[in-house]
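re: ur question from earlier - yeah i can do the single chain one, its not a big deal. heres the input i used so u can compare w yours
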Amino acid sequence: MKHIPDAVWEIVRARFERMPPHLRLVVGGFGQALKKEEILEHIEKRDEIGKLIVETQLEYLKSFKDEAESYEKIFNNATET
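and the output i got, formated as tokens:
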């Protein structure tokens, strides 16, 4: 597993802290749904489950960036013609 910068851990932790208290997250292969408090504990411990949560969230955030860039290209091409 690759190194995850501290800033990424903090961003993901901050995202989950702002989510509603009734949040549940199922992490494949690790059993039942985790409560918000359990999610934050795994992120704080930086254990295997925490790393998986952070990596998944990072990919999720990157997908927004990629989609925004795609729309930007489409928009720029449309305005150039």
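The radius of gyration is 16 Å. not sure if urs matches, ping me
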